[in-house]
Write a structure and sequence with these properties.
By secondary structure, the chain is α/β, with parallel strands linked by helices. The protein has 3 domains: about 70 residues, Udp-n-acetylmuramoylalanyl-d-glutamate--2,6- Diaminopimelate Ligase, Chain: A, domain 1 (3-Layer(aba) Sandwich); about 220 residues, Mur-like, catalytic domain (UDP-N-acetylmuramoyl-L-alanine:D-glutamate ligase); about 120 residues, Mur ligase, C-terminal domain (Protein-Tyrosine Phosphatase, Chain A). Helix content is about 35%, strand content about 20%. The strands form 3 sheets. It has a 9-stranded mixed sheet with strand order 6-7-5-8-9-10-11-12-13, with helices on both faces. Strands 14-15-19-16-17-18 form a 6-stranded mixed sheet. Strands 1-2-3-4 form a 4-stranded parallel sheet. Helix 5 links the parallel strand 6 and strand 7. Helix 1 packs across helix 3, helix 4 crosses helix 12 and helix 13 packs parallel to helix 14. The longest helix has 13 residues. About 45% of the residues are buried.
Length: about 450
């Protein structure tokens, strides 16, 4: 059946709100969207999806034989995005967009924990933050939602603006602007322009932006925004109290912070989060909690109850060795932050294991050499570099080098480490966390 009206699709969605884009995950009564990719064509699995129990299959290639449960549209992906926007417009609620070079997922998780403690909140699951993930996040939003938190990622100029046109945020924040995806952005200035697309969209719509004054570039990028809330962090517990200031009380083993309640009472939160580089993420969550009038006690409980997962700033102990596992992703800015924090950590022995940074383009050699030099001079006993992009840098600074994680794991299992603090950080494709899996944690 040819369908040209998004309202028709939306009516089917209201009757069958479970959206599936992978035919292997089809459930009875779902809507199957036959998306296309470089290596797959969902149209080829549409009939199979119906056989598995999908209520309807949204396709953009005619099927034979015809079936009224095939809904033929011009473009399945655009239909998914338009459907998401239409659903979002049924809600007159704050929609908070979060982007940034580093820490956006952790910030999203913390902000969501704080806001969910007081409101029926809906937020991005995992890192579904692209042109498919954002629509799926919106379409998963239940009717009772009072506030939505949408993470937005970008690899190229225009990506954030495009996602804003889908999600139509009313509020937004940029965690920071750093050296991430330099290849796609054409350099650091491209990163700044792309991340600030969120500010420009909100300026058009007279939306609110939240700005961490301790992060460079953000204030200048938001000059055109009329509605702004500034907040700051302080590592001086005795600093004068100002609105929306968060103080760092302790760094090790976890971050402890303090802030003023709405009644002027100093509240302390003992987090389960490691690394000084996460202080800004906690600060943001507290500032937004206060802005949205979440009671201070609930903010504290949410911060204290959040436990990092999925290889993001996780602290693991195996025997008498401790591992800072931050192997979900890496770029020059996040690497520098992690190494700076690691250099300040107290330990009898230190080993830094760094995996290659991807999507650096023409900047790859320069950036990997800079990180290798920084790591070598950060007070570690052993520096281990993994991945071809680090090959030349490893030779230059005299680091232990492995081409891949299996080689690293073999070395690690054969080496006797005692009372050692490890930093494990690298890009997702390097998969450094495998070093500790399947017996990798066994010490000899």
């Amino acid at each position: 059946m040819q369908v040209d009206n998004i309202l028709t699709i939306y009516q089917h969605y209201l009757n069958h709100p479970n959206i599936v884009t992978d035919s292997r995950k089809v459930q009875p009564g779902c809507l199957f969207f036959a998306l296309k990719g470089e290596r797959f064509n969902g149209n080829e699995f549409a009939a199979q999806a119906l056989e598995k129990g999908a209520a309807y299959a949204i396709i953009d290639e005619p099927q034979s034989p015809s079936n009224e449960r095939f809904l033929l549209v011009d473009d399945v992906l655009k239909t998914l995005q338009d459907l998401a926007t239409h659903h979002r417009r049924q809600f007159n609620i704050p929609v908070l967009a979060i982007t940034g070079s580093n820490g956006k997922t952790t910030t999203k998780e913390l902000v969501s924990a704080v806001l969910s403690s007081h409101y029926p909140a809906h937020f991005t699951k995992g890192n579904l933050n692209n042109h498919i993930g954002v629509p799926l996040t919106l379409l998963d939003m239940p009717a009772k939602t009072e506030i939505a938190i949408v993470e937005m990622g970008a690899n190229h100029p225009g990506d954030i603006d495009f996602l804003c046109r889908i999600a139509e945020p009313t509020h937004g924040l940029i965690t920071n602007v750093g050296k991430a995806h330099l290849e796609g952005f054409g350099g650091f200035e491209g990163v700044k322009r792309t991340k600030s697309e969120l500010y420009r969209y909100l300026a058009e719509r007279n939306g609110m932006v939240f700005i961490n004054q301790d992060e460079p570039f953000l204030s200048e990028l938001a000059q055109a925004n009329r509605l702004k809330l500034f907040y700051q962090q302080s590592d001086n517990p005795d600093a004068a109290n100002v609105p929306f200031e968060v103080k760092l009380l302790r760094v090790e083993p976890f971050l402890d912070v303090a802030f003023l309640s709405e009644d002027g009472v100093l509240m302390e939160a003992k987090s389960q989060i490691i690394g000084g580089y996460n202080f800004g993420n906690i600060t943001t969550a507290i500032a937004l909690g206060k802005y949205f009038k979440v009671p201070a006690e609930k903010i504290v409980s949410a911060i204290e109850g959040y436990v990092p997962s999925n290889n993001r700033s996780q602290l693991k102990t195996i025997g008498d060795n401790t591992f800072i596992l931050d192997a979900y992703n890496a770029n020059p800015t996040s690497m520098k932050s992690a190494l700076t924090s690691f250099a300040q950590a107290k330990a009898l022995h230190k080993v830094a294991i760094l995996g290659a940074m991807k999507e650096m383009g023409i900047y790859a050699d320069e950036e990997h050499m800079a990180i290798a030099l920084l790591a070598k001079n950060s007070g570690v006993d052993t520096l281990v570099l993994v991945g071809d992009e680090f090959r030349a840098a490893a030779a230059e600074v005299g680091a232990v080098y492995f081409e891949n994680t299996p080689e690293l794991k073999t070395w690690y299992q054969a080496t006797d480490f005692k009372q050692t603090l490890f930093l494990i950080k690298g890009s997702r494709s390097i998969g450094l966390e495998a070093m500790l899996e399947d017996g990798g944690g066994i010490q000899h």
